[in-house]
TrEMBL record:
Pfam families: DUF4604. The lineage of its organism: Eukaryota, Metazoa, Ecdysozoa, Nematoda, Enoplea. It comes from the Eukaryota. It comes from Trichuris trichiura (Whipworm). Signal peptide: none annotated. Residues 71-81 have a biased composition (Basic and acidic residues). Coiled coil: none annotated. This is DUF4604 domain containing protein.
Length: 91
């Protein structure tokens, strides 16, 4: 067989057996998205990076006098974010 004869290969998904359909109906099974479904719906980007999680926050250690405490670090971070927001709004 030459390459020309093999180009039109297709796949036909067989029908699901009746007992499987009945079980899936009873339990309310929903099929996961397939490749074609993923192409039709845009992938939703989650903005999880903007969400502050306390369990993922860095641990603040003050070893010497003059080191920032956790509260001072939080205030400094908020001040910096406000400055960045005001700069982005000005542009």
């Amino acid at each position: 067989m030459s390459y020309r004869n093999n180009r039109n290969v297709t796949y036909v998904k067989p029908e699901e057996p009746k007992f499987l359909r009945e079980i899936k109906e009873r339990i309310g099974y929903q099929a996961p998205p397939d490749v074609n479904t993923k192409r039709t719906y845009p992938i939703e980007s989650s903005d999880d990076a903007d969400i502050e999680r306390t369990d993922e926050a860095p641990t603040v250690v003050s070893l010497k006098p003059g080191d920032l405490t956790a509260e001072e670090a939080k205030k400094a971070r908020l001040r910096k974010e406000e400055e960045e927001d005001s700069n982005s709004k000005a542009n």
